[in-house]
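A quick aside before the break. I want you to see a complete sequence-to-structure record at least once, exactly as it would be stored in a machine-readable document. Don't worry about memorizing anything.
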Amino acid sequence: MGFGMAPQSEAAEWSILPSIGVKGVYNDNLLLTPLPHDATYGYWISPAAEFSGKTERLEVSGRVASDFVTYYGGEETRFTNIFLPLSIRYKTETDQFGFTGGLNRDNTLASELLTTGLVLRFTQRNQWTAAPSWSRTLTEKLILETSFQFSDTTYENALRLGLADYQMYGGAGGLRYQLTEQDQIQLSGSYMKFYTTNAPSGFSASIPGFSLNLTHAFTETLTGIVYAGPRFINATTKTLTSTIQTRDAVWVFGTSLTKKFENSLLELTLARDIVPSGFGLLIQTARAGLTLSHNISENLTTSVSTNGYLTSGITRFPQGGTFPDSRYFTITPKASWRFLEWWRIEVSYTYGKRDTDNFPEAMSNATTIMLSYYPPKLALSN
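That is the input. The structure line, written in C-alpha cells, reads:
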C-alpha cells in the first residue's frame, strides 16, 4: 500500500427546488355524466419539492409532492394526492443501469381517464410502480436493452364501486441499432402478466408480443418515430361455476412527430395500445393528440392541447359481454405568466365530451386558475 496518495472521489452536485401552489377549480360536469347534476367547485393546495443529484457516473432525481383537495357543490369531498416518483441511472464505460418507479396516489378522473379514455367511478387510486433496466453497448452502433416492469394498483372502496384492484409484471428485451446519423431501428420482444387481486370472479391474462421501432431525424428540429407489433392475449376468467379461456391477437402501433421552432413546439401523436382498467379488464385504446406551445416572451407561455380517444374492450366481463365502445374528446388552451421572479400564475380551460354506445353523450366545461411560488433552488456540491 502506497502512502501520500489522496483517495479519489467523484464530485457530487445536489439540488432541491421547493414550491407551493394554490389552485381554484370549477367544473360544470365533473363526472361527465348525462344524468342531471350540479356544478362542482373547489380549491387545491399543492406543496412540492424536486431533488436531483449527479456525479460523473450516477444521476438521481425525484419529487415529493401532494395535493390537498376540497370540492363543493355537485361532488362534495376531500382527498389527498401523493406523488413520489424516483429515477436513478448509473453508467460505466459499456453498461447503464436504471430504475424508475414510486408511488402515484390520485383520483381516477385525473389518471385513468387520460390513460384509457374511460370514466370510472370517482375515487382515489394508489399505484406503486418499479421498472429496473439494464443496457450494454456491444459495438459503436449496437446496444442491447433489457427492462422489467411491476405495478400494483388499488382503488378506495373498490368492490363497493364495482372496481377491481390489479397487478401487472413483465419484461422486455431487444437490440437498438444506429443505422445512420439520422436513423435508428429497434427490435424487441416483451411479456406482460395481468391479474385482478380482489375481484369476486378472478381474471388473468398473459400478453407476449414483439415490436419494431424506427426513429428518423428529418432535420435538427424535426423528428419522427413509428412503431408497430402484435400482442397475443391469453385470458382466463374464473367464476364460481366455470373457467373461461380466450385467445386474441391485437396489433398495437404508434407514431409521433415533433417539430421545434425558435419559440414554439409542435407535437403530434397517434397510437393504439392495450392498457389495464379498473373494471378488471384489458382495454384497447386508440388515441390521437396534438399539442402546440409558444413562448410569447421569456415570462409568458401559451399552449393548446387536444386529445381524442376511441376505447373498446378486448377481454370479456365474467358475466359475459364486452365493454361498450366509447369516445372521449378534450381540448385545453392554457396560459402561464411568470409575473415576478419567483411567482407564476396559470390559467386554463378544458372542454370535454364523452360518447358511449347505447348511452347519451355528456359534455363538461372546466376552468382553473393556479398561483405558484418557487423560492430559490437550494444547491450543494462537494
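Two observations worth writing down. DSSP finds one helix and 19 strands in the chain. The longest strand covers residues 243-260. We'll return to this after the break.
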